[in-house]
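Below is how a single chain appears once it has passed through the pipeline. First comes the sequence as given, then the structure the pipeline wrote out for it. We keep one example in the README because the format questions we get most often are answered faster by looking than by reading.
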Amino acid sequence: MTIFKLPKAILVTLVCVASLGVVHADNCFTVTGGGQSVQGLGSATFGVEMTNDQEVEGFVVAISYDNSAVAITDLSIVGTVTESSGAELVVPEILGSGFTLGVVLDAAAPFGGQTIAVGSNQSIANFTAQSVVVLSQGDPVVTTGFDFVDGAFNSPALDNIMVQNGQAVGANNGLCLNGATTAMSIGAPPPATLTIEDTTADANGNGSVRVLLENSGETQGFVLSITHVETEIALGSIDLSGSATDAAGAEFTAINTYSNGGTVGVVLDFVAPFDGQTIAAGVDTHIANFNYSDTVEIYIEGDPIPADQVANLTFDDGAFGTPPLNNIVVSGGLSIVPDVVNGAFTTPPSAVPSEDTVLWMETDFPDSMGYAGETGALCFYYADPTDNIQGMTMTACFNCDATVDPLWSWGGSIVEAVGVEYLAVQTDNSDTDGDGCELVVAILLDALPPFDGQTLPQTGVLDRLLIGCLPVTISETAACEDILEFNWCNDINGTGSVNLYNNVVINFQSIQEYERDDTVIVVKSAKSFKRGDCNDDDKTDLADAAAMLANQFGSYDVNCSDACDTNDDGLLNMADPVFLLNWLFNFGDVPAGPGPFDEGEDPTGDSLPDCDGGDTNCG
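Resulting structure:
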């Protein structure tokens, strides 16, 4: 039946038609459904029954309640005799601390004379009360009720009445009103506990932390919000794999990860046909996984053992989300604030064998110095007087003013002599990909059938053996006197996507702690000098003529032969100091380019050695 409202003045007429002199002793309104108990913010449905000794043409019910304990969420005649009798005017009013319901059975043409027949305990209305009291475990139960009250609600104020034979029957002429003073008991919600299970990381520093639930009722959903110290560990992901949540078929999941924690919200039954999926009541029920990683502290066997790294994991209300999320368990339609037990993620240190392996990188530029544009080699060596090496991964970072060619050369090395069966080389010469320039070399000696067990031999204590070399070219734009570093680096990906690190394989074990020596290239300006500056003091004068003579007829060494070749004939002889003295004192020709004033390269080819030292290198 459709419930609608008409002006309250129509209901007031129900009161005005009363014949106050007639007493009716067998007419009552009674609140039914008393004695119900709810938990948390639960709700319960109550009824209003009528006992009447004559046909009823209409009625008004006015009931009060404690709005600090409950709220009325529904007031209707559905399923009652009021509905089945075809009531034509129904006016429900839910007010701050009470409600009224006015009914006229026959209120519209053709006025068929509908009434509610004589009867006992006939249901005429239903109402639902929801708890608004938030209790904690241990708080006393709150009891509340519902009373019939005359003259308290609406304007003008309404009394509880029945209309029989056009007369209003109220409390003053025989209508009994049976309220329920202890109709509803409100208790604390069922207890629930969330626990972060203490977890120890694996050898790589990774671990999955389980979140456990203890709940006395079926769980319909939950929210988890867990924080950690950002600098201690990293939260990689959150998932439900292997959990009771996954097994129950959760239909809504919202997961967010942050630098210092993460949240997950779950509703088990979220979409039609609403089959009522829940997580059964239980103890230590696994409901979610928070997956963390940490850097494992490495130490050498025999050294003092570092302490475990312990990162605390904490249930933290209001830490994330807009609006902020709190840790909640939903059971029986109630949002339960659970007890919480925090946990920890522990990362033990890892011991590696103490090894006497040594690896070197070295460049084959003379004195580790090269010109811009010059190509040399980057070579690798090893020494190990006690172990036979089965293979190695060499990972390095280098200055991007150098370019490393992936063309590996064994160069008659011991590795070639033993018979290597696997080689992989990656060179990342780009500094635009965010991780600088890198190289990766992987060597495994026995990688193919018949697996004869090839290894690199042990070396003498002071000896080292060549592994192989890669071409390296100094950039044309490299600045003079720049130092181009080549360093052993871990956790780089070369041109691939897997982070790799330095290790040698000994007795089928990955050894990562051993001595590694870096190398550099110092950039020098290509063949740069001042013509006539034979003594390399950055000036051209009489002292340079003396230096030329001392070089040709004495034991004076010069840094740059081209600088002493004043007449640019490709020879060093007596003509050069004569040419210089002529220019200095007799108005002779200026020495050929690059001249005595500006540094530069020799524009004419000759057999004199390149300049490679002193101030003339870099101006």
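The helical segments are 8-16, 81-84, 244-247, 414-418, 542-553, 561-564, 575-585.

See the next section for the split statistics.
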